[in-house]
Amino acid sequence: MTSASLPGRYSEVYAAAGRDPEAFWLEAARALDWSRPPTRAFDPGSGPYGRWFPDGELNACHNAVDRHADGARREQVAIRYDSPVTGTKRAITYGQLQDEVATLAAVLADLGVTKGDRVVIYMPMVPEALYAMLACARLGAVHSVVFGGFAANELAVRLDDARPKLVLAASCGIEPARTVAYKPLLDAAIGLASHKPDACLILQRPQCAATLVDGRDRDWAEAVSAAAAAGQRAACVPVAATDPLYVLYTSGTTGKPKGVVRDVGGQLVALAWTMPNLYGVAPGETYFCASDIGWVVGHCYIVYAPLLHGCTTVLYEGKPVGTPDAGAFWRVVAETGTVCLFTAPTALRAIKKEDPRGERVADHDLSRFRSLFLAGERADPDSVAWAERVLDRPVIDHWWQTETGWPIAGNPLGLGLLPVKHGSTCVPMPGYRVEILDEGGKPVPAGTMGTIAIRLPLPPGCLPTLWGSDERMRASYLATFPGYYDTSDAGVIDADGYITVLGRTDDIINVAGHRLSTGGMEAVLASHPDVAECAVIGVRDTLKGEVPCGFVVLKANVAREAAEIERELVAKVRDEIGPVAAFKLALTVPRLPKTRSGKILRATMKRIADHEPWTMPATIDDATALDEIGASLEQRGIGGA
Ligand code: COA
Ligand code: AMP
């Protein structure tokens, strides 16, 4: 790579991390408070590929909350909660945050939670969800947040894998068109799961009251006010830097979600590095990440990174459009004095669709706003160019995965903005040695497409393993290309070292920035009694990037109306995976296109659906099957043969 010719400090910093990773990361670790500072940055001998800061000891909540609350930032706002769906705004100072978290941690401790225990959090975007995450971190417990758009079955799978002592949930989440009652979903999930938590702490929201189960469920507000009245506060428990801070489940190719483990030391060091160097944000400034705490982006940039860095974080319970209009983000940016906004390209597309000329931007005072960062899916050059035009500020695409826990590549604003190339996610961050490999695992020359792989070891902050399974970690990520982590993204690196991410090499699709497994949806369709076989593909969508489309072949003896079965299939995916899957299209076809060896030709089906040129595969078993797919799509106004 020829990044030495790039402007700014980037090349020098990236090279320093490559030359002497020990010195680089021990220096970066100085941004944190440690109860026992690390003397070594990396131990190559433990875990599937090594562990970071093996002899360090610290507490994440102390670093994110207490050191600010006990210091100069006590009166500074830590969290600005803005909820257009409930008409609420709240400002919570670091001092108040410390009180809330220390008290809630005492409640959790009272319910038996200790260091290393798992706690599942199933909550909407309310301040209490952040208190919950931080209270777990305070006790050295491991939180596992489950996104509210998942159905009971998905929650049950996570309960069985994480085996939490306690579940923290709210009575409901609020979507613009409806109130989503979480408690019945939680009750159903606990019913389905083999593992039963000892207790559930339920936050009753005024929009919907939950019925509590005697002996198991506790009322959040009552428990917290009793603890506060008794003056109960839990102290921060020091943990090993290699201990898990959280487990976050993400779609795997088998349909069984993977529990991505995040270790405390590596995560905090990496996040602390990014705030000034990648995002160009200073302590005391306001950072607004318009994601959800159920996703990795929310864990990192709504909660831990801004708080670690002594920033004010914005907690936004609303949508980019419809709450009430396409100016919502700009209003929040103006009112909170946000300097850096982070969102998904799909949100930008939604705003652009409603406000193509960007007129709503001018309604607000954006004088403090400096940059917009995008991630979660490919940022289409049209939307990036549109945002640059209407905002007149850097719009920076950056690439990462739940597994990595912080960006793999981006344009490091804090080190000096590099030339922007639309469609590219720019250059690798320190510690990420990114290469493009061919199918045999050999690096390819610049400009050649292949699988994007990261040479081991991964930098701090990336997953050290999968929950409870070093073996699955090795098999999923490290076995394909020995010596590398396989990102399962395809892409290309150009002669300047810029990385372009083109799409997944597995069955993961990205729907409105949400990562979903088509394999998981196929499993749901296949379990319908009338379905003989099925295939789900991601079809290009102008708003959501991709949406799933399922093709089903009915069993020979089925005499019912196909349309009725298709409706049942749509409802079944919503019921078993959740509304977030956005599964609205099930199409009945006489047969699935397959190769002579029986492999379903999903890639060709996708090309047809996306209106892309395609050729009849030489190995096809029955060519009429592809024509039937085209005809069925055309009938619904999608793609065509
Ligand atoms: N709890 C319950 N249901 C939820 C939910 C939650 N937290 N989040 C989404 N859903 C539901 C929605 O209500 C919708 O249900 P519906 O089928 O009844 O309409 C469904 O899940 C699909 O949601 P979504 O894909 O978000 O579509 P949308 O039409 O509601 O909104 C956008 C479209 C573009 C505004 C929205 O997808 C968005 O803001 N995306 C940004 C994603 C993001 O930040 N990703 C993080 C990665 S960086
Ligand atoms: P998630 O684990 O939900 O963060 O999803 C990770 C996947 O999203 C990656 O493997 C990519 O396929 C995709 N992705 C994330 N950010 C980008 C980006 N900036 N450009 C292209 N794809 C991206």
UniProtKB/TrEMBL annotation:
Key words, A-Z: Ligase
AMP-dependent synthetase/ligase domain residues: 75-456
Gene behind this protein: prpE
Family from the record: Belongs to the ATP-dependent AMP-binding enzyme family.
PROSITE patterns registered for this protein in UniProt: AMP_BINDING
SUPFAM superfamilies: Acetyl-CoA synthetase-like
EC numbers: 6.2.1.17
Gene3D superfamilies: 3.30.300.30, N-terminal domain of ligase-like
Domain Acetyl-coenzyme A synthetase N-terminal, residue spans: 10-64
Domain AMP-binding enzyme C-terminal, first and last residues per copy: 521-599
Pfam families assigned to the protein according to its UniProt record, in alphabetical order: ACAS_N, AMP-binding, AMP-binding_C
Top-level enzyme category: ligase
Protein's name in the database: Propionyl-CoA synthetase
MF terms in GO: propionate-CoA ligase activity
